[in-house]
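Morning F.,

Quick status update on the modeling queue. The single chain you submitted on Monday has been processed. Sequence for confirmation:
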Amino acid sequence: MTTSVPGPAYRIVMPRLVLRCWNPPDAPLLKAAIDANLEHLYPWMPWVNHEPTDLQVKIETTRRFRSEFDAGRQFVYGIFNPEETEVWGGTGLHPRVGDDGLEIGYWMHKDQARKGLATETAAALTRVALEVNGMRRIEIHCALENEPSAGVARKLGYHLDGALRKRLKTADDLVRDEMVWTMLADEYPGSVAATLAANIEAYDAIGRRIL
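Structure tokens below.
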């Protein structure tokens, strides 16, 4: 396993974005972002089938995200503008790909699409997963038809391991073929992901800088 620093990273600061653990006061911003993006997210995100939901549901969701984060079960982040007054998306590190690996998931607000923000987000989480969480393997999964998401993985230097047939359930009641992209720890130093994430700052639960 790669060398890790004390973590997890609760807050990650980049020039154009802040990624941080969700907290219940974020619930109104989360609801506003999801409600504005239902059509945009519907082809790719199965959880959209359960939207829209009321504010109390979002409060419980953020409480659950925080609890799982604190317990080290999974690490779900909000993507915020630098002032943290708007939610621009969501992302996370998910332990559903086996030992020594984490999967990066992400969604972006339609108003922030095609600006390179998802690429910067995935680059930052790639570094955090390797250097803070001490993983050997980071994966990005997306539907075969989801070219924007595949483009993020491709640009960062992830390797396309292949496509799994009829594995990915989506909100439109289809089961799509799923691409699996992988970055190994020894591939990271020479990657575009490493270049993009070179100057991020990451902080632990009490605000101590760890990257």
